[in-house]
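hey
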């Protein structure tokens, strides 16, 4: 089948040939019109992307699974020519349900969405869509393909409209059993004298100023009333501080011929539940994951308990599919060199001999270790007890 340019060139050449034989000026003008249409067609196809702009507005960019996201899609036509029967097509992951589209099909594990629009000249068309993601992950959308009727030809004009959009779908937290690693920091932790002075959790009272007191600890209002400098005196406090270690398995293990996607989803959901519990309780925790991150063999999120820390932890759990899992015993071996005794929570779907040996070394060094086993549908919590204590109990 001939293209538009070939058709115009063929017809124009034939008309010009007959005009040359007959000497008719009308045939010369009529043949030139075909070459003019060919030039207009090429100019229109080249300039069409500059006349179109696509905007995508979403009411949310971070949602939980099953939460509807309302989208406002606006296609603007800045040319003086109308665009009837314009088709927009884009693809999303298979687990995303789309409502409000003209045609939705599932092809090759992709949800293909089609929209039909008719845009007048120098105007815009608006469509409202609803996206409902069902699984954890990142929903990417980089471009939308548009097919327009060619005003100067008989074939469709294809235009790729850039559209940078991403939707973070957080993991759904699992119900966790009751567990605790202590209301204060583990026995053996050191709190420096500076920490005692700077801890403003509980105000015990005021005392006269002493040499060496910090300037920010002076109560200026009380000093003005009494006529002498007064220093705030704080209560000795200590907060819980956990180290949460997540064990991520490879997506596929060739030796076992096993896919671990479902198990990893349970592990990630359990980590999200632990982070949510710490956030609601105001507990500071440090997140460590056995994935390769920026050239390192593990991902480490510094200790924190605020909203920003929680958002960073959840965002990293969403993007875990982008990283390669590494060895968990190597990560646990790094924790053995800590000078202070730590409260360590290990979330793992599989505790083999190497991991159990690494956990025993942590317990021998004085750390408090708790394991959340997510091999089943319901997480099971068990403390790690030294082998000597187990043998003594059996005896």
């Amino acid at each position: 089948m001939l293209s538009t340019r070939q058709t115009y060139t063929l017809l124009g050449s034939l008309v010009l040939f007959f005009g040359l034989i007959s000497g008719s000026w009308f045939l010369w003008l009529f043949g030139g019109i075909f070459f003019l249409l060919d030039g207009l067609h090429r100019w229109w196809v080249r300039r069409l992307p500059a006349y179109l702009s696509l905007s995508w507005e979403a009411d949310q960019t971070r949602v939980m699974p099953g939460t509807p996201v309302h989208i406002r899609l606006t296609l603007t036509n800045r040319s003086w020519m109308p665009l009837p029967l314009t088709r927009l097509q884009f693809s999303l992951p298979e687990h995303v349900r789309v409502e409000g589209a003209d045609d939705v099909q599932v092809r090759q594990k992709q949800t293909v969405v089609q929209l039909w629009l008719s845009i007048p000249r120098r105007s815009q068309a608006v469509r409202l869509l609803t996206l409902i993601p069902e699984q954890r992950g990142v929903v990417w959308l980089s471009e939308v393909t548009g097919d327009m009727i060619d005003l100067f030809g008989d074939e469709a004009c294809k235009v790729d409209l850039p559209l940078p959009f991403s939707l973070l779908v957080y993991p759904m937290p699992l119900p966790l059993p009751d567990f605790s690693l202590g209301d204060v920091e583990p026995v053996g932790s050191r709190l420096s004298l500076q920490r005692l002075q700077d801890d403003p959790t509980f105000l015990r009272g005021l005392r006269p100023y002493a040499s060496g007191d910090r300037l920010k600890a002076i109560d200026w209002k009380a000093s003005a009333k009494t006529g002498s400098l007064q220093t705030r005196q704080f209560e000795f406090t200590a907060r819980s501080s956990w180290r949460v270690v997540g064990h991520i398995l490879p997506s596929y293990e060739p030796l076992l011929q096993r896919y671990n996607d479902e198990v990893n989803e349970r592990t990630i959901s359990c980590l999200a539940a632990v982070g949510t519990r710490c956030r609601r309780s105001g507990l500071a925790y440090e997140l460590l994951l056995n994935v390769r991150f920026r050239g390192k063999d593990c991902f480490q999120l510094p200790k924190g308990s605020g909203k920003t820390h929680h958002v960073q932890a959840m965002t990293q759990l969403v993007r875990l599919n982008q990283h390669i899992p590494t060895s968990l015993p190597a990560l646990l071996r790094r924790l053995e060199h800590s000078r202070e005794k730590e409260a360590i929570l290990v979330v793992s779907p599989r505790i083999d001999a190497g991991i159990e040996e690494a956990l025993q070394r942590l317990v021998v060094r004085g750390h408090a270790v708790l394991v959340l086993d997510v091999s089943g549908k319901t997480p099971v919590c068990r403390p790690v007890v030294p082998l000597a204590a187990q043998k003594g109990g059996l005896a």
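The radius of gyration is 33 Å. Confidence is low (pLDDT under 50) at residues 183-197.
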